[in-house]
Design a protein that fits this description.
The chain is α+β, with helices and mostly antiparallel strands and 260 residues long. 36% of the residues lie in helices and 20% in strands. The protein folds into two domains: 186 residues, tt1808, chain A; 59 residues. The protein is built from five helices and twelve strands. Strands 1-4-6-7-8-9 form a six-stranded mixed beta sheet. Strands 3-2-5 form a three-stranded mixed beta sheet, with no helix packed on it. The radius of gyration is 32 Å and the shape is rod-shaped. This is Putative restriction endonuclease domain-containing protein. It comes from Candidatus Entotheonella gemina.
């Protein structure tokens, strides 16, 4: 029995469909790793940066799943029909760890956002067959293509069942309606950017910022202590000068006290 594709607003309630889903393979039965390493260390770092910074930014938010370089299984009749987006986001789903994304075990939910990191080996696939699959079957609302080396960046939104390219704004950012954030290239990396224009920091960047703030606080404390020490020294010098003046005045009085 083939399973119908449901949108996120259509929960599965048909008992026959639900029973069929229960009999299908789970993530424990399906492959979760194709054994192929990600293209380059830069591709890996870019993928992790997108995932980690978004998760940190949404640390107080629940009901979403973000993954990368893991299988999205979309055909219960063929295990080999899967894709491994470099980055994908699914909204309004259960919070739990997953080995892979199995759409028939997720209420037939497909990714809402996909980002593919281009390389010489994957460019043709990412710009052709994958783009068609993500639009026509996955119905992924937003699809982005980014080359970590040339920094070329293109975004698409799903409109009328096909992808339409999104123009970047004056600050070379593309707005993601699914996340409420922008995507843009900053210092040769694709970054999430808040509506206020702030780059969403990674854990490493937050740690570095915290270290810098701690060092600055330490410097301010040391400078304040130096100013306090200098003030104390000036007070001691003033006391010493006052004491010397008093001693001179006393000596003057002893010497010339009978001249009146």
């Amino acid at each position: 029995m083939s399973l119908p594709i449901y949108t996120c607003s259509e929960p599965i309630t048909d008992p026959e469909v639900l029973a069929s889903i229960e009999a299908l393979p789970t993530e424990d039965d399906l492959p979760c790793d194709d054994g192929e390493p990600i293209e380059t260390p830069r591709h890996r770092d870019q993928m992790n940066l997108l995932i980690d910074s978004l998760e940190l930014h949404w640390s107080d938010r629940t009901g979403y799943y973000v993954g990368g370089n893991m299988f999205v299984h979309y055909d219960p009749e063929n295990k080999r029909h899967s894709r491994g987006p470099d980055f994908f986001l699914v909204l309004n789903v259960e919070d739990r760890e997953r080995k892979s994304w199995v759409v028939w075990r997720e209420g037939m939910r497909f990714p809402d956002v996909i980002i593919e990191l281009l390389s010489d080996n994957t460019r043709t696939e990412d710009e052709g067959p994958k783009k068609t699959l993500y639009a026509e079957l996955f119905r992924t609302a937003e699809y982005y293509l980014y080359d970590p080396y040339s920094q070329s960046f293109t975004g698409y939104q799903l409109r009328g069942g096909r992808y339409v390219e999104i123009e970047a704004d004056a600050e070379e950012r593309i707005y993601s309606e699914m996340t409420g954030l922008y995507l843009g290239v900053r210092e040769n990396w694709l970054r999430w950017i808040t509506p206020d224009g702030e780059v969403v920091a990674s854990a490493a960047e937050r740690a570095e910022q915290a270290q810098q703030q701690a060092e600055q606080a330490q410097q301010r404390a040391e400078q304040a202590q130096q100013r306090a020490d200098q003030a104390e020294q000036r007070a001691m010098q003033a006391d010493e000068r006052a004491s010397q003046a008093e001693q001179l005045l006393e000596a003057y009085r002893r010497r010339f006290g009978n001249l009146e």
